[in-house]
Every structure is written in structure tokens, then in C-alpha cells.
Specification:
Strand content: 15-25%
Order of helices and strands: EEEHEHEHEHHHEHEH
CATH topology: Rossmann fold
Structural class: alpha/beta
Shape: globular
CATH architecture: 3-Layer(aba) Sandwich
Radius of gyration: 17 Å
CATH class: Alpha Beta
Length: 246
């Protein structure tokens, strides 16, 4: 892994690069209150095929914080565009997970020419649901995996470490007063994968979104809850590779 810090839109962002420099660029956008290391369960197969670009969005991980008014999904999308500019990467396969899928969707709307394919995992574009419901779904999924003899990857504490914890919490206000962009996505013709766990409380939302996008396919991951890279990293990697490859 190569790590660097880039000054973009008034903040200093941590960026990590994996895989061969000449491989297809794949940009991954982290879920809520996590950092780039949260992708660890799926990095080995992805880095073997792609030039993987990860970053800690403003206020999270090792990135610096910014003005509270700039904690919005349009700003997060523009920050990613700034990173790609600095890296001289014109176009990517873009994958966002959970809260990060909101940034990925907004990026596709603001910078459509820079997205070769779009993947939205564990996605909801409406107001977030009760966190307790996510926990219930995750517990059900784990019980099913245990019964099937499937190992559940560790949620290591370092996946959720932040240099500025208060800013990391503020970064999670991006959904407030933000309209649901699903209607705008109805005009988005970018090939899109919508993937969600069977036990994820966001499943109905994922189905709704997949039904609106004109060029979308829906994949349901069995025995998976919210934060699917922690429950079924095998399926996350498999479905993303099958979708992203030509």
C-alpha cells in the first residue's frame, strides 16, 4: 500500500493506493465512521485486479476536518474528484458502501463523465434508519453464517480509528437537510450494480433504487447484514469483480 496526503478543497486528505499502477482504477468510498482500513477484508482480491484508490473523507481517519457547512455529500463528491485530478486519473469504476454509497451516487450525478461503472453496496439514499435495526439484522445474518459454518471477519478497532473523533462525528451530518437524489438518478445511464445483504435493513431501499436507475442490476447477498464487507467479503469481492470486469 502506498499512502500519501493530498491538499484538496481546503482539507488535507489521506489517500491509499494498491495494485498495479496500470490496472483499471477502482475507487472505494468508506462507510460511516470508518477509515480506509475498513476495506481490508476485500482488499486482497481487489488489489490483484485493479488500481485501488481509497481515501479518508474529510474529518475521518487521518484526514483533516473542514468547516461544518462543507460536511455534505456534494462536497465529499467534489473532494474525490479533486483527488482523482491530483492523481491524474480521468475515469474510475466507483464503489461506495453504506454511507459512502451516498457520496458515490452524488459523484455520479456531479461528475458522470468520470464514472465508468457505479457500484452501490448496502445503499439507502433516504434518511438513515434506526441503528438498532441494523444491529438486529447483523445479528440474524451472523447466526445464519454460524449455522452454515461460515467465518465472520473481525471488525478490528483500527477500522474505526480517527485522528479527530469530533470531526469524524460531524462528518456524519452530511445527510441532514439533503434531498433524496433517487429521482435525479433516474436519468443516470451509467451501468450500476446495487448490492445489499438479505438481512440488511436497507434492502427495501436498495430494491427501490435499483428499480429507478435505468441501467442497474440488483444482487442480494445471502447471510449478510449492514456493512457487508464484514459479513460476506467473499460476495462483496465476487459481485464487484464480476460487475467491474469488461
Amino acid at each position: 500500500m502506498d499512502e500519501c496526503f493530498l491538499d484538496v478543497n481546503g482539507v488535507r486528505l489521506r489517500v491509499c493506493l494498491d495494485g498495479h499502477p496500470n490496472a483499471t482504477p477502482l475507487a472505494l468510498v468508506n462507510g460511516a465512521y470508518s477509515n480506509v482500513t475498513s476495506w481490508t477484508p476485500v482488499m486482497e482480491p481487489l488489489a490483484a485486479r485493479y488500481r485501488v484508490i481509497r481515501h479518508d473523507w474529510r474529518g475521518t481517519g487521518k484526514s483533516s476536518g473542514g468547516p461544518r457547512a462543507d460536511y455534505t455529500f456534494p462536497q465529499y463528491a467534489d473532494d474525490l474528484a479533486g483527488i482523482l485530478d491530483r492523481l491524474d486519473v480521468p475515469r474510475v469504476v466507483l464503489c461506495g458502501l453504506a454511507y459512502g454509497a451516498r457520496t458515490a451516487a452524488r459523484f455520479a450525478l456531479r461528475h458522470p463523465g468520470r464514472v465508468k461503472k457505479l457500484a452501490l453496496f448496502d445503499v439507502s439514499l433516504d434518511q438513515p434508519v434506526d441503528q438498532e435495526l441494523q444491529k438486529v439484522g447483523n445479528q440474524k445474518a451472523k447466526a445464519l453464517r454460524d449455522a452454515a459454518g461460515l467465518r465472520s471477519p473481525e471488525r478490528a478497532p483500527e477500522f474505526f480509528a480517527h485522528d479527530h473523533p469530533k470531526e469524524a462525528m460531524r462528518s456524519l451530518t452530511a445527510h441532514r437537510d439533503q434531498p433524496d437524489p433517487t429521482g435525479e438518478l433516474a436519468a443516470c445511464t451509467i451501468p450500476t450494480l446495487v448490492a445489499c445483504g438479505r438481512q440488511d435493513v436497507n434492502l427495501s431501499e436498495a430494491e427501490r433504487i435499483a428499480g429507478v436507475l435505468p441501467n442497474a442490476e440488483l444482487r442480494i447477498m445471502e447471510m449478510a447484514g449492514h456493512g457487508s464487507q464484514f459479513s460476506r467479503p467473499d460476495l462483496v469481492a465476487q459481485y464487484l469483480i464480476e460487475f467491474a470486469d469488461p
